[in-house]
């Protein structure tokens, strides 16, 4: 959450900062601000609410200067108002900071600073950092920041500037920071999309890194002052990849990007001749006696699909944990455990801390991750990148289906390596997996999309929804309910269809739409029996059926057909229909699907 942008060079900094912050709005925020230095002073402007409020404040009165830092804030300490917005400055205005994260010991530090005469303007934990730096400053900004950070405990991405120094000092622990390298100019941001309009040369900072940026380049050290080598990476994404590309919303664009994203996930990894996959993983699959999959939100549901696939194909016991609970239940972990963490951003703090807990207990670790250079990728034993590209919409679409596809390949790899999956079985499933980009493209055919849109609009004013699925598609039901909740704000619940009669059936009446995933599977007959239980109680059944299944169509009030797929890969195809149902429900209600209320793309505080 929160967004950071910094610039030093020959351009007007305000333009760079506002442009960069606009690319980070997907991270979620409640206020925005900038600080611009012109060599004589540092001017600060900040406003609660949307970035447009700040732009209106600057219109006609732009801040001039070629050095600046900007921030969009997600409130943790203190109300979302102008005063608590970042940047924060010292009393004399000479030191200015922005900060992502949480300073856990800020109260103790604040009390000590106040006892020494420091006066605070805001309610934030972040302002403590400005005062600590001021107290430590004696002419060297880098050393002052390093000294201040030695006193804090918590998570931070911090960026600092001082009126007497044409430089920006930054540091990170947990909260992500990436630098952009230009010709005679340097950039800094929380995430790559903020910088793509200016450079494709990126340097990803590691946990515990500090950096000094000036017009000529950068210098990276650790918190003890030791020089650190960080490679410049070339990012393939162009600026347009982070824009809407002609679609009404980022979410719709990313739904339609799924055939390409899936191609990128699968490409070069499938070998038709042997029925094997090459994931470039160095872990020994024969050494694992059990697997723990750890994730949050959408990634958690992808992990549930992974559990089903791995147990079926590789015959290894798997359990899936909500990352925020993992550390606190004293999990049973040993050196024979493989802990798989799943995250689009690679920065989700609950998942990151769960990863560290698993490592402390001796587990081997693997990540299913989208973002290269993220915190998790630097702490994992191995990483299976999904290569879905930047995902701007808060509600995950292409990252989810790419994660599920990655689990299909991982289950294949484990099954073949452990001898639980024959060459023939592997070849059959590999062929089905290779078909996924084409099947998803088919799922996005105009006539299918229009049919889903019509159903969504029909039930858009329902107060509640129920989603049902069985087997490998029970997680698809959970994901469908989550998508609907996230962007339409309609209350939705999901259950394994056989569980409905153990309580949820009491909810069913003539006002309740019940979305049932009843695509081709060995459990289809049982699923249709559950549909009959809904119909007997006057529930409105929305059936998701495989193409050509006219026999079961009579059991639904509305039918949505999806391309026929192998049962083991069908969650990818079926998820697309779930995404479209949620999307068109939300747009029918006039909701902002890209920035749903109370949500952020990357959750980097516990």
From TrEMBL:
<dbReference type="InterPro" id="IPR017932">
    <property type="entry name" value="GATase_2_dom"/>
</dbReference>
<keyword id="KW-0032">Aminotransferase</keyword>
<feature type="domain" description="SIS">
    <location>
        <begin position="455"/>
        <end position="596"/>
    </location>
</feature>
<dbReference type="InterPro" id="IPR001347">
    <property type="entry name" value="SIS_dom"/>
</dbReference>
<dbReference type="InterPro" id="IPR029055">
    <property type="entry name" value="Ntn_hydrolases_N"/>
</dbReference>
<keyword id="KW-0315">Glutamine amidotransferase</keyword>
<comment type="function">
    <text>Catalyzes the first step in hexosamine metabolism, converting fructose-6P into glucosamine-6P using glutamine as a nitrogen source.</text>
</comment>
<dbReference type="GO" id="GO:0008483">
    <property type="term" value="F:transaminase activity"/>
</dbReference>
<dbReference type="Pfam" id="PF13522">
    <property type="entry name" value="GATase_6"/>
</dbReference>
<dbReference type="InterPro" id="IPR005855">
    <property type="entry name" value="GFAT"/>
</dbReference>
<keyword id="KW-0677">Repeat</keyword>
<keyword id="KW-0808">Transferase</keyword>
<feature type="domain" description="SIS">
    <location>
        <begin position="279"/>
        <end position="420"/>
    </location>
</feature>
<dbReference type="InterPro" id="IPR047084">
    <property type="entry name" value="GFAT_N"/>
</dbReference>
<protein>
    <recommendedName>
        <fullName>Glutamine--fructose-6-phosphate aminotransferase [isomerizing]</fullName>
        <ecNumber>2.6.1.16</ecNumber>
    </recommendedName>
</protein>
<feature type="active site" description="For Fru-6P isomerization activity">
    <location>
        <position position="601"/>
    </location>
</feature>
<dbReference type="InterPro" id="IPR046348">
    <property type="entry name" value="SIS_dom_sf"/>
</dbReference>
<dbReference type="Pfam" id="PF01380">
    <property type="entry name" value="SIS"/>
</dbReference>
<dbReference type="InterPro" id="IPR035466">
    <property type="entry name" value="GlmS/AgaS_SIS"/>
</dbReference>
<keyword id="KW-0963">Cytoplasm</keyword>
<dbReference type="InterPro" id="IPR035490">
    <property type="entry name" value="GlmS/FrlB_SIS"/>
</dbReference>
<feature type="domain" description="Glutamine amidotransferase type-2">
    <location>
        <begin position="2"/>
        <end position="216"/>
    </location>
</feature>
<comment type="subunit">
    <text>Homodimer.</text>
</comment>
<feature type="active site" description="Nucleophile; for GATase activity">
    <location>
        <position position="2"/>
    </location>
</feature>
